[in-house]
Design brief:
Elements: E1 4-6, H1 11-19, E2 25-26, H2 41-59, E3 64-74, E4 77-79, H3 85-95, E5 99-109, E6 114-125, H4 130-138, E7 159-163, H5 166-170, H6 174-180, H7 182-187
Parallel strand pairs: 1-2, 1-3
Antiparallel strand pairs: 3-4, 3-5, 5-6, 6-7
């Protein structure tokens, strides 16, 4: 297999790639795609993943480059990373007692491949008290997470259930990635 590059600085994606037994380099893309108001959430995350993968592929044309982007969405609205503690509290109050979707766009670029997919997982939260939310936000954990929570960390206590891939909620749909790109991971 050619050199595999993960175009992301996410420690969660790095850990998932390691769990998959992949040998890879991390070269994060700083490129952010322009926001297109005409795109739905799925189109947006796939376009963002594609932009990141293509950015790194341009500089590494002999590699297999993987770009990814994960967002939390509810009622058609994207809940990105909070800008501060107040924003995190408001997001968690919005998610309290409700279901939301987590979407991850994955895009792969190589000389032979330029394609991707979007994974989606439904997550349901318990009703959260103001104290639960305040304590979690004080921990600092939600401040760098889409939707203001990490299912793999302290946010696990809020999750009533999920329908779909757990690892997608963490930040990378591992099994779907391997199934979609098995050939490229072996031969590309």
């Amino acid at each position: 297999m050619k050199k595999l590059i993960l175009a992301s600085a996410s420690p969660r994606r790095k850990e998932i790639f390691e769990k998959l037994g992949l040998v890879f380099e991390i070269k994060p893309s700083a490129k952010e795609p322009p926001i297109d108001e005409n795109m739905n959430v799925k189109e947006m995350v796939l376009f963002s993943a594609q932009t990141k993968a293509e950015d790194i592929f341009e500089k590494n044309p002999d590699a297999l480059v993987v770009g990814a982007d994960t967002v939390v969405a509810m009622d058609g609205r994207v809940l990105g990373k909070p800008c501060d503690e107040i924003d995190a509290v408001n997001m968690l109050k919005t998610l309290s007692g409700r279901k939301h979707m987590v979407y991850t766009g994955v895009f792969v670029c190589s000389k032979n491949t330029k394609r991707g997919f979007v994974a989606e997982t439904e997550v349901e939260f318990y009703n959260l008290s103001d104290d639960e939310i305040a304590d979690y936000v004080k921990s600092g954990e939600p401040l760098d997470k889409a939707g203001s929570y990490g299912i793999q960390g302290g946010g696990i206590r809020f999750v009533k259930g999920i329908c779909g891939d757990y690892y997608n909620v963490v930040g990378f749909p591992a099994a779907e990635f391997v199934r979609n790109f098995a050939k490229e991971l072996k031969n590309d």
